[in-house]
Amino acid sequence: MATIERTLHGNKGFHQLTREPALMIGVLLILGLLLFFIAYPILAAAQLSLTQDGETTVEVYRYIFTHSRYMRAIRNSVMLGAIVATTATTIGFLFAYALTKTALGWKRFFQTMAILPMISPPFMFALSVILLFGRNGLITTYILQLDTNGIYGLKGLVLVQTISLFPVAYMTLSGILQGIDPDLETCAMNLGARRGRVFRTVTFPLALPGIFAAWLLVFVSSLTDFGNPIIIGGDFDVLSVQAYMEFTGMGNLARGTALAILLLVPTAGVFFIQKYIMKNKTYTTITGKSSRRSSSSVSRPTTVVIFIVCASVSIFILLFYLTIISGSFIKLWGINWSLTFDHFIYSYDVGLETLKDTLVLALISTPITAVLGMVIAYITVRKSFPGKHLIEMVSMLSYAIPGTAVGIGYILAFNRAPFRLSGTAFILITCYVFRNVPIGIEGGIAALKQISDDIEESSTNLGGTSSYTFRKVTLPLIKPAFFSGATYAFVRSMTAISAIIFLVSAKWNHLTVLILAQTEIMRLGVASVMSFVLVLVVLVFVFAIMKLTGLKQSQIFGTTK
Known about the structure:
Blueprint: H1 2-19, H2 21-49, E1 51-52, E2 55-56, H3 59-65, H4 68-101, H5 107-115, H6 124-133, H7 138-143, H8 154-178, H9 182-190, H10 195-224, H11 227-232, H12 239-249, H13 253-280, H14 300-327, E3 330-332, E4 336-339, H15 342-382, H16 388-400, H17 403-413, E5 415-416, E6 419-420, H18 425-448, H19 453-461, H20 466-477, H21 479-494, H22 511-520, H23 524-549, H24 553-556
Helix pairs in contact: 1-2, 2-13, 2-16, 2-17, 4-5, 4-8, 4-10, 4-14, 6-14, 6-23, 8-10, 9-10, 10-13, 12-13, 13-17, 14-23, 15-18, 15-21, 15-23, 16-18, 18-21, 19-20, 21-23, 22-23
């Protein structure tokens, strides 16, 4: 029976494609683009890692697994990811719990602090930590007068990645905690349960699948992080940086590619496990709008403790931003504390054209990414056709692929005839689009599932085609999801590093790559200026979107269910 149903469903989908030529062309075009710009580069990288002297072999992998240097990098990456996932998920849960389940004051401020790290360059906090806790840091050397080797290594990476990645856990958990009906907690207390017992037996178990999913997502983000380890990692080798160094610094393309592929295996696996948990587990209990507020389930002393934790994290975040701003005006941090505008002048001379390149590429790729994400979400939710699940899988796979693997794959795939695209604006734009499109797809799918099919069916019954219905009916209804996806795409395009560091050229550079170069030669003042300017540009774009669309911060960043 199941086989017959699948056959009928497939026949219906095929009939729908043949009845709507525009839909067929769109599906074929999207599938071709996804396979060409996502699957093909990864296959090219895998082929190189398995080829030696024209023959297929696993010799490169055998070499990696028999040398302590690479095994140490693998162990370090896993250990760092596990520690950061635990600390960041804990903080993310506290922020989400505070903003959804307590009568905490300053909620708007804490929500902003929980989102702010997401719009920062990937290594801005690492730069701040160097200025504060480095070998010549303000706090370690001049305030505490400690003789220290600095914050480089595991301890620095844990601090920086925790602050950078806890917003990932916060955004995952805030919607889940909002989905828990507060009436359940109130009923438990009415039956005599104390607040602590209600949390242990009602709230926490219902949120546990989401906590695990958030932990996995942060683990993947830590594992694939490139910007922070390359600046503050020191002697603590990690897989993403090791792959980059082998590929570019040592010129061992096969070994660098193999390390990137090894990084791909756990990240892709963990990503799809996380997606399965979020899709197939039920941890919401809403059957209608609750008549009670959730704040009654949290005692005042607990609220005070949560407030202190959230305030402490927020102070750290603000301290990092103030450090970057201060470093922009200090002549030579730790040596000459006099104020100067030299860093701004130098940054203007060196970085203005790069900033223009970065902005132009992001502005071109952003609408393409947002529209493509909505189109893919629409056809996968509303249409039935052969190859639908393949489109879903490949489109979401791009988010699971580490940036290092993407960059290496693009270099290998598009640096030879007939696809010699390296060094061009086109290759950077396509990298942005296909790296960021899953965000728009996820937002579009969530929005479409809240819209009744009857609305679109009415348009179809009146003679509207799929493309007309999408443009005139569906798209206006999913405006928040569209602009949320566009904002994410812009932010990630402006702050990208791990993939595009392989793809930039003298003609088309990226500001994050330039910031990294300035940091490596210890021009920390210049790097601070460029990081500060980059954050300002992103903030201006976000506020402009909010002003033009009338959407709130929570709608743009998807922090409400």
